[in-house]
Amino acid sequence: MKVLVTGASGNTGRPLVRLLTEAGATVRAASRRTGFDWSDPATHDAALDGVERMYLVAPVGVAEPEPLVRPFLERAREAGVRRVVLLSSSAVATGDPGLGRVDNSVRQTMPEFAVLRPSWFVQNFTGDHPAAESIRTRGEIVTATGEGRVT
């Protein structure tokens, strides 16, 4: 089994590459460091060659990533990719702007898919993340949960 991991140098991609490799999967790591570029279709075929499954992290810092991701998904399907696991967010519903539209494209394009909707990562409490800044400056965790609770 060959798995493409997009965002392979990121917070979720890096450990996933390690875990998949340890489990015996053949992994292709795709990131800017490996020459993969969402906005350059010339880099897509090499990333997809022989791939059956994909972990998809949409391009970071792009407000509307769907116009970049959808053609890539269509090419992936044509290349034989059957299953896509999309990293999304618990704060984003299918069809919402941004990742919600990517979610919708995955559902419409791929024969098999899963959408991960995490609510927090430990990294959110360190560095420059808004949650970390809120803890440091206000002593509180501010979330998009309104009056709801995240447990």
UniProtKB/TrEMBL annotation:
SUPFAM superfamilies: NAD(P)-binding Rossmann-fold domains (SSF51735)
Cross-referenced InterPro entries: Ergot_Alk_Oxidoreductase, NAD(P)-bd_dom_sf
Leader peptide range in chain numbering: none
PANTHER family, per database record: PRESTALK A DIFFERENTIATION PROTEIN A, PTHR43162
Protein name per Swiss-Prot or TrEMBL: NmrA-like protein
Lineage: Bacteria, Bacillati, Actinomycetota, Actinomycetes, Pseudonocardiales
